[in-house]
Amino acid sequence: MDKQDQQEALLEPVGVIGGGSWGTALANLLAAKSVPVSLWVFETDLCQEMQKTRENSLYLPGVQLSPLLHPDSNLEAVMAGKRILLMAVPSHVHRRVALQMLEFLEGPIILVSATKGIENESLKTMSGIWNELMPASMDWEYGVLSGPSFASEVIKRVPTAVTAASDSREVAREIQTLFSTEYFRVYTSNDVIGVEMGGALKNIVALAAGIIDGLGLGHNTRAALITRGLAEMSRLGTSMGANPLTFLGLAGVGDLVLTCTGDLSRNRTVGYQLGQGKKLTDILGEMKMVAEGVKTTRSVYHLALQRGVEMPICEQMHRILYEDLSPEYAVAELMQRELKHELDTFLPSPNTV
Fold first, then answer.
1. Buried-most residue among 46, 96, 289, 304 (CB within 10 A)?
2. 3-class DSSP state for residue 60?
3. CB-based contact 109:97 (threshold 8 Å)
4. pLDDT above 90: residue 143
5. What is the pLDDT, as a whole number, of residue 4?
6. Is the pLDDT of residue 230 over 80?
7. 292-302 pLDDT tens trace
């Protein structure tokens, strides 16, 4: 794509599906580049408020939105005439929203997912859901955008770097060009499953990191947890065909470090409160945004069993979340496991699926 084509592409309208913090931040980023953006907001009251006040007070309070960002609660209107659609809805409703979108899809389209998670029922990433649902006659391409990026910092133009992955090098570059700004740097990749798995799996480790901090166990413990969590991410991801180097990049260790250490991390916050003795139902009842790792833990636990991949941290998190295991006991069990060679544990064994 030459410079003239790039400039024309930036004037092309984009539809963003999901008016939470991440969808709003990315929509505003595009609008600030003079890209006309329609943003689908599920909550009708919030949508009307955003239209009047030019602010998403529920998810990103205090930030004025670009006049080129058009909130709309009509999904068909948001999608109409858009060749590029960005998905920014939580993973547990991704399929439901996708099914609603099928009625209005007209190719050719580029579907970009900014959702981080794995579906509980099917154990599929978002690309797996779309590959299952999309009609064979549809002319479409898929991409995923992921990396260490808190929405509240992106919308304030804090320097950020992420990865755009697609099976098509041209599509990855188009996504890169579309989203890149002087403060938002986008790298490209052809490892869709690796980038998706990195974005999903790091949330489980972030829950565990929060528990470590909630228990007051110190920096040594958290560093060990993050490192061994990365090993589990790499094992499961590569068993599914991901490039192991992806987990050393922005969508892997970059996002992992951010989510495990940043105070803005919803998953770390949930874990921290679990470590302090609060019940999961009480924690979630007080939250207005989704902590993806809670549901993803269930998916990954069953996916690891299905594929024969050893994931002790994920297993203990599943027991804490869904079997009421005490965090202290989980830490003790992890520390007393069979001693092993470190490097042998970063990749799946030849006996795994």
1. 304
2. strand
3. no
4. yes
5. 52
6. yes
7. 999 999 999 99
Write phi, then psi, for 184 (nearest 5 degrees).
Answer: -125, 100
Per-residue pLDDT for 350 more than 60? Answer: no
Q: Are residues 332 and 252 in the same domain?
A: yes
**Bond into 90 cis (ω within 30):** no
Distance of alpha carbon 319 from alpha carbon 316, whole angstroms: 5
Q: Are strands 14-17 and 160-166 parallel, antiparallel or unpaired?
A: unpaired
Residue numbers of the domain that contains 115: 3-190
**What is the identity of the amino acid at 275?**
G
202 is catalytic: yes
HEC sequence for 69-97: EEEECCHHHHHCCCCEEEECCCHHHHHHH
Retrieve residue 258's tokens.
């951010």
Check pLDDT > 60 for residue 3. Answer: no
Cα angle 141, 233, 310; round to 5: 125
* Residue 343 binned pLDDT confidence (cut-offs 50, 70, 90): confident
Does an H or E element contain 112, and which? strand 109-113
Cβ pair 327, 208 in contact under 8 A: no
Q: What CATH number is given to the structural domain containing 328?
A: 1.10.1040.10
Which residues fall within 8 angstroms of residue 296, CB to CB, at 6 or more apart? Answer: 91, 116, 117, 118, 200, 201, 203, 204
**Catalytic residue among 202, 279, 288, 295, which?**
202
Task: Report the candidate in 333, 305, 55 with the shortest Cα–Cα distance to residue 208.
Answer: 333
Which residue from 117, 118, 119, 175 is spatially nearest to 142, judged by alpha carbons?
175
Amino acid at the residue 279: K
Out of 167, 190, 213, a domain closes at 190
Q: Report which residue type is found at 28.
A: N
Is 353 within the bounds of a domain? Answer: no
Tokens of 188: 């490209």
